[in-house]
Amino acid sequence: MHQTIKHASDGIPLHLLQKTQFSSWLATQPPSVKNWLNSTQYQGNGLTLIPDSNGELACALFCSHDLQGLFASADIAKQLPPRQFVLNCDAQFELNAAIAWGLSSYQFDKYKKIETPRATLAMEDGAVAQRANHVINATCLVRDMINTPAGDMMPEHMANTVEAVALQFGGTFSQLVDEELLEHNYPTIHAVGRASVHAPRLLDLRWGDQQHPKVTLVGKGVCFDSGGLDLKPSAAMRLMKKDMGGAAHVLGLAYLIMSHKLPIQLRVIIPSVENAVSANAFRPGDVLQTRHGISVEVDNTDAEGRLVLCDALSEACNDKPDVIFDFATLTGACRVALGTELPGFFSTDNQIAQDLMALSENNHDPVWRLPLHKAYRNLLKSDVADISNCAATPFGGAITAALYLQEFVAPDIPWLHFDVMAWNNRPLPGRPLGGEAFGIRSVFDYLAQRYGA
Asked: Which single residue of 58, 241, 328, 405 could bond 220 by disulfide (Cβ 3.0 to 4.6 Å)?
């Protein structure tokens, strides 16, 4: 369950102030308010509730050192009583406050009834409320998809989700299923997913005016990753429902693009599979042919994400888009390098990378560039195929995985690869435990800036 922001003017006033504004605000208040704040020893920091002369709640006040921070006021959504509040703050803080409220109110209640009532937020500015709701809905779509257990988010369920989003915004949806993947030359997607009773698929969403610039998103959709024959230990397998987090990210990003009506021609490509164990599972040492014509020796069946992505990236290049973004829960090595809350990305275009880094510092959706260090390419050497799907060493694992993917991207097409955790390991303001979207607001802001929306 998530809570959108209402466009309305009725409700209990909720005043959000910078700490530096508190004194001047207090000077305009009646004696009853001044006396109440004095008696409760409120010093202009955090949340306080102010009653009227009858003891009813008259207003709520929240002061912060920095309301510019996206999550500065996030926790108040859970601290206020279950009433409707109307936002009252400087215009420059409205959007962030509304987004933070919606993200903080998120609860995943698909399987567990949550009856605790929550406060709701209204805004008089309908345009800002709409913008906030687009971000809230997109982020909660990502969270919901990742939080859903694998049994209910297999390739066929993912297909239904992608189709529903396409229809919501007037886009088109198509898919290739099982043997159709071989007929249309997507051999590695089929190889990874063929051992599952849930048939592998290539999901394809298209939206936008064909006269507009092309932007293509590719997302890793491994609905559950057992590791294949190189079976994961149980502890490492426990959260593998989140291994489709890349697919969730690109669908959430697509939601932002379509809801804001960016003037681009959008394509979303998701290879959706389960990496299961069965008699026909692909094996360590197998050599797979790819859509690109490159042969790949399977060093480890638990490095399956890059195998399904390589066919999808090859297809993404066929349209010659302006830029390709891919998202994937690809390597533990990236988490070792940057931690779980800072997504790493690789880019073949320095200008896009610089612009993205700058935007991410200002919009509180940080991303960090890692190098496509060419000297590590020979670590993917194979004696029997053109390339191995794994390096011979675990060191620099995020880099070697990105270098593998780069082999399947046309050198004249700008490409950015995001290696994301897709999961909050600890609760933070506005970010509960569980599935999470990383970097999609920054990429959206880049696209909006570039294409003039």
From this structure: 328
User: 47-93, pLDDT tens digit by residue?
Assistant: 999 999 899 999 999 999 989 889 999 999 999 999 999 999 999 99
Do 294 and 408 lie in one domain? The reply is: yes
- Quote the CA–CA distance of 114 and 67 in Å, as a whole number: 30
Instruction: Based on the residue annotation, tell me whether 110 is a catalytic residue of this protein.
Output: no
pLDDT single digits (tens) 194-251: 999 999 999 999 999 999 999 999 999 999 999 999 999 999 999 999 999 999 999 9
Strand 201-207 relative to strand 214-219: parallel, antiparallel, unpaired? unpaired
Domain encompassing residue 437: 147-450
Output the domain CATH number for residue 117. Answer: 3.40.220.10
288 domain residue, yes or no:
yes
Q: Is residue 137 one of the residues assigned to a domain?
A: no
Tell me, yes or no, if 194 is annotated catalytic. no
Catalytic residue among 6, 19, 83, 232: 232
* Catalytic position from the list 194, 306, 431, 441: 306
* CA 226/CA 327 separation, integer angstroms: 20
